[in-house]
Amino acid sequence: xxxxxxxxxxxxxNRLSSKTxxxxxxxxxxxxxxxxxxxxxxxxxxxxxAKIKDAKNNPLRLNDPGYMNTVACVSRICYADGNTGVLTYxxxxxxxxxxxxxxxxxxxxxxxxxxxTKNQYATWKYKVMTHTxxxxxxxxxxxxxxxxAHPMGLLVNMISAxxxxxxxxxxxxNGTEIYNNPExxxxxxYRILGKxxxxxxxxxxxxxxxxxxxxxxxxxxxxxxxxxxxxxxDPNYKPHPTLVKALDTLFILQAEHETNNATAFLRxxxxxxCDVYMCIAGAAAALYGTKSGGAGEAALRMFEAIGKxxxxxxxxxxxxxxxRILYGFGHRIYKNTDPRVKIVKKVVVDVFRILxxxxxxxxxxxxxxxxxxxxxxxxxxxxPNIDYYSGLVFKAMxxxxxxxxxxxxxxxxAGWLAHWVEAIQDPDQKIxxxxxxxxxxxxxxxxxxxxxxxxNFELESTRSAQQRRREALLEDDINYFPEDDDDDDPxxxxxxxx
Length: 498
Prior knowledge:
By secondary structure, the chain is mainly alpha-helical.
């Protein structure tokens, strides 16, 4: 345990590498002033840019929607080189980890900073796998969700609800200093990593109307997850080892990817002093979107919409015309190839050796071939990313399409926890509070309701047939000011339809 504590402090933010500084000379043509701005390790600090001020002494700001060219933190966890297609976790190439490691070991690597020794891994695995059981109150809560509720909505709720069972970790009650103790941090790490696949499995079982299956501590991490999903009544049931390995590999590939949208949101919440459960729940909520973790689901629905190989040319033309979206192609980071795709393709082969080959795989391969030979996509450096093929693997393994984001959440929790630990220990971390460029109305005075000019605001909302039935006997119009006489509004401008 002492060694785990030492590793928890292995990447102390105070142990910074030597920084190299250079300067950039800038002349502001607005004022004629010249500034020497420091560039540290090739990056211009925002505080340096703020030195440039206009005639009214307003500092110069950077407008960067989506943080396309903004560095928000210093990290030692993951490195992705988009130009060469390189991805490393703590310096280890993703290809080597996928071939030789397993997800739990990679989770240790991400969180503590190095691969564990044999004894450390045994302790780590034991701690995680003995923190898998969830409170009966949460089971009861999960059982009251509708059977057709989206599993990600259920999962996010369960993560945040778990925080209410551990007030000792609530920063609002105890202050953020509680996480300065590495043993306290480790305890929450064990709980979250151990319980996440249980929440995910219960979300699956709720969807299919089956009773929840308790975890079995003697099984491995992935094996336990698949058992909780698929075991009905056989006490000796075990999932196929090839499928366990396939999912384990996918979990390694999905565990971490720099400050992607969900991870950036986690760091945002951590900067506000939120407890760790809320940080993880917020990251999972961000992952919910179709432009983030939902991209795999969107890609598979795209394949289903295309239907046949013969429809591919028409589909690609509509993509060029901005009428359709080619999901699973292109990436904010990678401009030549996503290094994870080559590994996922091997997983696809392994899975389809065991399970029936999905006809959508042939369509996906043909669509990829057509797009990569089209000058339109080549010029824009659009190539398949991991979401393009991961959905096919999940579908072949029998997972519902709306469950894909849940399968991403489980492994990404390891990366999120690594960033959480790094963020709360970073002495330079400030509460995230981006500036805005206000372009709204100038200062104006309040106008009484009857003196206001008409506007075109749309107030209608969709209504169900039931609502229309209930409102059938209501008057067509309701006066916005029923206490006033009709003569006060001869034009009828302030009457609104229901």
